[in-house]
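Pilot study result, target chain (380 residues):
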Amino acid sequence: MLGRLLELNGIDSVILENRSKDYVIERVRAGVLEQGTVDLMVASGVGDRLHREGLRHDGVWLAFKGDRRHIDFRGLTGQSIVVYGQNEVVKDYIAARESSGHPLHFEISNVSVDQIESATPKVRYHHDGADHELVCDYIAGCDGFHGICRSAIPTTHLHLYEKAYPFAWLGILATAAPSSEELVYALHERGFALFSMRSPQVTRLYLQCSPDEDIAHWPDDRIWHELERRLQTSDGWRLNQGPIFQKGVTPMRSFVADPMRYGNLFLAGDAAHIVPPTGAKGLNLAAADIRVLAHALVTHYKLGNSGELESYSETCLRRIWKAQRFSWWMTSMLHRFGTEADFDYHRQLAELDYVTGSQAGMTSLAENYVGLPIDTDIPV
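Predicted structure:
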């Protein structure tokens, strides 16, 4: 995404990826796009397939005590969300990059960054049987939570904020037509469950489980049985079932690195922050980072103004912490914490009852879910 925005502004960049092209494209992860992310894709010229295949949702359902209640995003905020897989987003940007002919290297190894405090930082890597050294103006560390860029920043200059949750999500992909046009979040005595989708033919579902859950103990029949129990509602809605072709356990955690810049190295996306997936913010926060960073770089190169580069971290973190708050709130409202007393469970039920019965409560949820405003224009 960053490479595409820079390219459209005549700024050269090189993209380095240590995985194979097939791995990057086929790895299924997030799937809910805020309107701001959709606008960014369209403005950067990669929105055609998104418009054809993306599933627009005007709201979500919250289910508890056998009841299913609707939050009308469009009616409350005038905006919607779009279900379109992260791997599909990546596929579109890879196709645009390859069509442009600008450098994109897969399956690199032995990557390191050096002299990041200087005016000419360097990236060293191995590719196609040879060692390479890339000298540049800036390095964008879009290399994920386990990447090398954040660890290149001296620990004395970096403050890490972390929170681990005492549960995880067991997620599946199934060949089954979605049984609801919109997502369904459920709080049940046995734990959280989520109905989602990836396409008109594929359903995405999640169950709250233990962080050390052994996926081998969850045959398909047990998964469907537990999903049915937790998602059952009195209005007669039922899941469509089908063959499960992917399953896995995802830990739940929150993480923020502050600042997101050191010298001429900038962190973006999961390299700088992780949110629990309950609020559908991870991919969208990464896109917002890139929008801010791209605009700052374009302003620097075209106008000679580096003010936005200097304020990059502060600008991004202000929005990131609001997304962390929302993700924590959604997670706390919809999950059983194991050691909690009956008091806490009934408090959660009361909160759901309030949120779904109050115009103010529904509007607050809707505003955060569709995406808070981004102060920076799209730089195209």
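One observation from the pilot: The chain has a mean pLDDT of 95. A full batch analysis is planned for the follow-on phase.
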